[in-house]
Structures are given as structure tokens and as C-alpha cells.
């Protein structure tokens, strides 16, 4: 029934083909929905909807608050999840008054609806719904056929779900590019690549003093809010966050050397830095009678990095190293001494056309030559903290 033309890393294509083949086998499906609960810090579940005659799969996500909404509580799916039972409804019958979704389906021509539990081998419960426009609804043989295929479908859907969960968790903890490489088989220590990238290294000014005078729980809340100010801008401009180090953040913006897009990438990096600066400046965190305000510094550099698995024993980290990363780290410390928010290396300034001001030449530990450091002309020196 299921072709290998759409492997599990293409769930949309697989679901489309699966539904089409069930229709070819005699099941009068009009709409099929798969509802998967996820292991994600912000997403409670995902839904995938196939509709006959409609190109593509409609996909959506719901947050954890969905469980308390009147819409969900008045849905057949709430019963499937709470009682682990099938729920069948006739859009033209009295149950349509109980389940508003059946009224919506009736308006679209549906004649029958069935929601079934999907039991995964790990013990978790998910759901699948099917609707038809066949006059009189599903007949007994078709209902029996759906009950027969639901278990093997659950196995395949579980495989797809587990892969997507792995992708999401890797994306959350190591970044999307690193996650893709790990899933692609780059799991051995020493397995790495060299690439050119714009490097972003930042930290929060005055973090040590902040940690000393505030409760640890409050410091964690502040860090999360502070990192939000950067991560949104970094990812929105094509960057990847590799690591959080206390109050520090390391991100890279890959450069395609064959395309020669260094100028374009560096411009996006600078825009992300300016957006982050504005967000951090606007951040206000009330602590008792005091409203805490914050400043940060970020160093920007361009260079070649070694990107891959580094670690000891069976504990590895997918990160980047190299002289370019070391230089960015040194520049970030210089930014603090100069009271600047954004500083850049000479290499970054050469490809990022902007109104820069040379801040001086500084000896850098580990480098034989002093390095020229640049700042934005629009910034003035702030108090050093």
C-alpha cells in the first residue's frame, strides 16, 4: 500500500501518497488528520491534514494552552486523548450539536467522521481522524478496514514522529545545521569540516555583579529574556546559535565561498547586531522596587573555522574552533574595555560596507600582530562596567 518513493524524512510526501493509495484501495476518504503530541519546549503538538483534491499537506502547531481551550474540550479529539477510545460522529446527526467541528464538516459536505487513537510503542497516545463525503457515510466494511490498518499506520507514523522529534531536539540543543549533520551521520570524534563564516560572540555586561546580588532563579529568568533579544535576530538573519556559555553566546553565519556572498552575509550580521542592541536596550526586568536595565557587547569577525565533533570519550560537542573564533573572543573583551556595544575586526569591516570608525590597534594574546578594531560611528562610548 505504501510506496518507498517517499521516505520518512519526507512525511508530507509520504502522507499524501498513503492517503491517495487508501482511496485507490476503496476507502472513500475525503479528509485525513494526524495529530501528534511532541517533545518540544514550546510546542504541545503538530497536526497534518490531507484533503482530497487539495495540493499539499496542511500543517500546523499548537501550544500547551490548547488543552484548556473550549474549542479543544468540545472536540472529539479531547475524548480520544482522555479516554483512549474511538469517537464517531454524524455531521447530520444530533452529535453535531455536541461537537462543533462536525457542523463545520457538514458545511463542507462531509457525511461521516471517525477519530481513532494512535498508540505508539513508547506508550504515548496520539490521534488520527478520517472524514468522508460518501452518501450514507462509511459502511461497516470500511470502518473495519480502518481499524485494521490503524496499527501498522501507527508504527510508520511513530518512526516519522521520532525522527522529527530528534530533529527538533537537535535543533533546540545544538542548532539546525549541526543537527542535520549529526542525523546525517557525522557522529565520530574528529569528524569535522572547514568553512568560512561570520562569527558572533557576545556577553552581558555586569553579569558577575548581577549574579552576586540577585537570587539564582531571577538570574536565570533574566538570562532567558536577554538571550531572546539575540536569538530571534540571529536566526532571522540566517545565523545559527552554537553555544550558550554562562552569559556568553557564540553564533555563526555561514558564507558560501563559491557564491561569494560575504558582503551580503556580513550586512545581515550587522543588522542582527543592531536589532539585538535595540532589544537589549529596551529590556526592563522588575526586581522588587528596582527595574533592572541591561547592556551587552558583541564582537564580529570573518574567518575560516573548524566545525565538527570535539570532546572526550563518549561525550562530544558539535562546535567550532580556530584562530578566527579566538580572535572574536578577544575582540569581545576589548568591546567591554572600550564601552562599546558592537565592535568588528578589520576582516569584517573590509567586506561589510558601513560607517565604521577605527578605535585603535590592540595587542591580542596569542596573535603575533596587533589587530585594528572598529566600532559603529553611530555609537558613543558608554560607561565601562
TrEMBL record:
Signal peptide: none annotated. InterPro entries: A/G_cyclase, Adenylyl/Guanylyl_Cyclase_3/4, Nucleotide_cyclase. Residues 198-332 form the Guanylate cyclase domain. Transmembrane segments: none annotated. CDD domains: CHD (cd07302). Gene3D superfamilies: Nucleotide cyclase. It comes from the Bacteria. SUPFAM superfamilies: Nucleotide cyclase. It holds the Pfam family Guanylate_cyc. One of its GO terms (biological process) is intracellular signal transduction. Coiled coil: none annotated. PROSITE patterns: GUANYLATE_CYCLASE_2. GO terms for molecular function: adenylate cyclase activity. SMART domains: CYCc (SM00044). PANTHER family: ADENYLATE CYCLASE, TERMINAL-DIFFERENTIATION SPECIFIC-RELATED, BLR2264 PROTEIN. This is Adenylate cyclase. It comes from Bradyrhizobium nitroreducens.
